[in-house]
Amino acid sequence: MTITFDQNSASSAPQPVRSPGHGDAFTDHMFTMSWNETDGWHKPGLSRLHDLTLHPGTIGLHYAQVIFEGLKAHRQADGGVAVFRPWEHARRFQRSARRLAMPELPEDVFVDSIEQLLRADQGLLSDDPSHSIYLRPLMFGADANLMLRPSHTYEYLVMAFVAGGFFGKALETVSVWVSHEHSRAIPGGTGNVKCAGNYSGSFVAQLQAQEAGCQQVVWLDPVERTWVEEMGGMNMFFVRGTGPGAEIVTPSLSGSLLPGVTRDTLLGLAEGMGYVPREEKVSLEQWRRECAEGRITEVFASGTAAVVTPVGHVKDRDGDWTIGDGTPGPVTLAMRDALVDLHHGTAPDPKGWLHRIS
């Protein structure tokens, strides 16, 4: 596939971003490509980051036929840059496309688009280990047509921004608020893929959590409203016990929660660190009771943006409680360190999860 380069896309050597803020320190370039029923995927190109021009009747705007991914690139110990598990993100992007009746992007094209953008913009990433380049592949239905149907044309693009810590000081615990009123997803819905419509519906509960003095909302299952599923847009983990042999439990994939790439990574790391990884249903009352009994000693959430974030306090309509002593626990910190070391290439990578950018 021949990739075009905008004649204005070249720039002088970029200077590293030292204070990236929260989601708006965009890099200089973007990758774009189109699809239609005649030509398939065509016109791949790298250009300067620019605004899009859309017809007001664009299908993606009206019917949320929009999917996306989120993955990160990190500075390596030798000064290079590597992106973490791009092939798994490519496969999840395909699953999201299938669910929304969109054309699948070949895995190698997905990874190549990431490589093209990082080759142009990796100089913006400093050597601060708390910084990363967050990459956002996006696909949307592009037809100017308001019939309730899938689009016949699509646009794919990749943009990026330099990221710092998702919650600011990464080692501080967060407080969470349990939502009994709202659901993030439903059985048979789109909760297990990354589509735009999943997220706007969660904002009202997130605002309620903030009004309660919490940083994040905890979602319960949408049927019984009994089982813990996710925290905001992150997967959750419960630690039972301490030290070697401690259980690291995450809610089973139910079809209404997202199979996170970081979730899968942590389950794999846990076993190699001497912990016992488990996937099982955990009820809200079980969580409360096992914390009171001292059985659940730590809780943390995981995600591409959040990495590993410890949870210290829970606010619920039936009473609040503290997890452990309310501070980050040793298992949480060990898991976070192991993941960060893997991101930066300072730990062995036997499964080849790091994809180096030349």
UniProtKB/TrEMBL annotation:
GO terms for molecular function: L-isoleucine-2-oxoglutarate transaminase activity; L-leucine-2-oxoglutarate transaminase activity; L-valine-2-oxoglutarate transaminase activity. The keyword Transferase applies. This is Branched-chain-amino-acid aminotransferase. Keywords: Amino-acid biosynthesis, Aminotransferase, Branched-chain amino acid biosynthesis, Pyridoxal phosphate, Transferase. InterPro entries: Aminotrans_IV (IPR001544), Aminotrans_IV_CS (IPR018300), Aminotransferase-like (IPR036038), B_amino_transII (IPR005786), BCAT-like_C (IPR043132), BCAT-like_N (IPR043131), BCAT_family (IPR033939). CDD domains: BCAT_beta_family. The gene is ilvE_2. Coiled coil: none annotated. It comes from Streptomyces gardneri. Residues 1-14 have a biased composition (Polar residues). The modification N6-(pyridoxal phosphate)lysine is found at residue 194. Belongs to the class-IV pyridoxal-phosphate-dependent aminotransferase family. Residues 1-23 are annotated as: Disordered. The keyword Transferase applies.
